[in-house]
Write the structure tokens for this entry.
Amino acid sequence: MALDPETFDALIDTIRRFVAERLRPLEAQVEEDDAIPSAIVAEMKDMGLFGLSIAEEHGGLGLTMAEEVRVAMEFGRTTPAFRSTFGTNVGIGSQGLVMAGTPEQKAEWLPRIASGEIVTSFALTEPDVGSDSGSVKTRAVKDGDVYRLSGTKRYITNADKADLFTVMARTGDEPGARGVSAFLVPRDLPGVSIGAPEKKMGQKGAKVADLNLDDVPVPAANRLGAEGEGFKIAMRVLDRGRLHIAAVCVGVAERLIADCVAYAGERKQFGKPIAEHQLIQGMIADSKTEALVSRALVLETAARKDAGEDVVLESAAAKYYASEMVGRVADRAVQIHGGAGYIADYGIERLYRDVRLFRIYEGTSQIQQVIIARETMKRGG
């Protein structure tokens, strides 16, 4: 259920000021420390950001998809790690539970996820399993009233601080996706361990690490859905997550364009601001046009999702186009800034590195192409 327009406008205004006044001044510190200040995390909890997509009955804000993407765009205007702090609770870490959880599971976990008391992670990727997500090797063997899970999950966002993981594991001998089931795995179960955070190209402050499962006894009551439904749950979760990430890409692109316009208006070459040179104008024009296209596609797809339509194709298209778009915008931003774009002080090179990940996680651009083509052929054009 959507918020009334006045309440939602107030929320967006609060978030916009929070991003501008609290987060952007801390970007260099987050890059240096590779950590989000605890005071900022506390403020995010107080603002209800960890429960954006969780129903009000479970303590969340209960935003529609159209509202959620608007929030994501605002958070795109600063270092992506800030959004990632609560992003798994809003998206892939909670939505399997929202979509497929029993009333008992929801009552146990969702209020604490919405408040930020519990941080969630989504554990699908493995050392040998990435784009081919139906080939999960982590096993879950039924043993009385528990499943014993063994395997390793790789590049798991927020694993370092997560309290609850949605884990995809193979429960039977069925080949491919049909043998995959989903489980809620609390961090404190025996046999759960977390690897050291990886050193990454960008998005400092947002950690990824291995999740190791060594004969972990997961109660059967923690299975999400029926056996063999895990892959379907994962794909539904990723459909929503892709649209959210596309919205973040739009926000980052808009931030970069604003930075370019400001710099080009001040920087002078050949006796005039570089903004008056047509080749600079061409790069700004291309960036603005592509950002507007992405914004329109994201907002339209979100509205259609809220209306109950099948948006598998459109979500993939939005993520594909927006993530590729923001990469082009970031590259042009470096070019417009010239030598300054390559220097850390301006923050352009940081965002250039940060946005590269958007073309990889929650489905690579190549996987989005496969989905778009498959769905287009299903629809007959």
